[in-house]
């Protein structure tokens, strides 16, 4: 391999044949063509959230929706490692199982890739809502040991003096 550079371009040769031409960068600068990476490493190297969303949609509709929710927000690249882990789960387990696990996580608004992995490891993705014994809709019931609203009042309580067996008075709250 031979590298030659001039004021504008850097040429890379292999056995006398040009294989790549890059624009010259200032000292310390870098120039890498994303097409130079292997196909399976391009997503990680380019750190492109849109590409991660596209690949997630290819695994299934629920996986695509999960990735959309995961990468939503002001700084989607901060969650890119989790998106990459989600895509690797599609390789380790089948895309159908990952889609079912993401569907189950989305039902309860759980946007956490580690929990999706736990669903897959424990094979909870195979359970449907009817098999889990859950009702189709949730009903909110009052708490059994809930305190009344007056228990949280900050009003001062009156105190009264109670005569004790001794000469001093004891105070008891009402």
Spell out the blueprint of helices and strands:
Elements: E1 2-5, E2 9-14, E3 17-23, H1 42-46, H2 49-59, H3 61-70, H4 80-92, H5 95-107, H6 113-121, E4 159-163, E5 169-173
Antiparallel strand pairs: 1-2, 2-3, 4-5
Helix pairs in contact: 2-3, 2-4, 3-5, 4-6, 5-6
Explain this structure to me?
It is a single chain. The protein has helices at 42-46, 49-59, 61-70, 80-92, 95-107, 113-121; strands at 2-5, 9-14, 17-23, 159-163, 169-173. It is of the alpha+beta class and 174 residues long. Among the domains are: 1-31, no CATH class; 38-126, no CATH class. The protein starts with a strand and ends with a strand.
Structural class: alpha+beta
Q: How many beta strands in the DSSP annotation?
A: 5
* Mean pLDDT level: 80
Instruction: Give the low-pLDDT segments.
Output: none
Q: In which range does the helix fraction lie?
A: 25-40%
Order of helices and strands: EEEHHHHHHEE
Strand order of the largest sheet: 1-2-3
Strand portion: 15-25%
Distance separating the two termini? 92 Å
Report the C-alpha radius of gyration, rounded. Answer: 31 Å
Described by strand count, sense and barrel closure, the largest sheet is: 3 strands, antiparallel
Oligomer: single chain
Number of helices: 6
How would you describe the shape?
elongated
Can you describe this structure in just a few lines?
With 174 residues, the chain is of the alpha+beta class.
């Amino acid at each position: 391999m031979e590298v030659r550079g001039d004021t504008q371009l850097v040429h890379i040769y292999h056995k006398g044949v040009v294989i790549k031409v890059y624009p010259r960068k200032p000292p310390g600068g870098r120039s890498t063509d994303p097409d130079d990476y292997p196909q399976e490493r391009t997503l990680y190297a380019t750190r492109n959230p849109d590409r991660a969303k596209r690949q997630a949609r290819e695994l299934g509709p629920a996986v695509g929706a999960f990735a959309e929710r995961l990468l939503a927000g002001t700084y989607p690249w901060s969650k890119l490692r989790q998106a990459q882990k989600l895509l690797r789960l599609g390789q380790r387990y089948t895309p159908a199982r990952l889609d079912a696990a993401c569907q189950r996580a989305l039902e309860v608004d759980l946007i956490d890739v580690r929990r999706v992995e736990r669903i897959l490891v424990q094979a909870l993705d195979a359970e449907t809502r009817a098999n889990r014994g859950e009702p189709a809709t949730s009903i909110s019931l009052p708490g059994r040991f809930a305190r009344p609203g007056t228990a949280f009042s900050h009003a001062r309580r009156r105190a009264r003096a109670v005569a004790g067996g001794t000469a001093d008075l004891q105070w008891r709250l009402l």
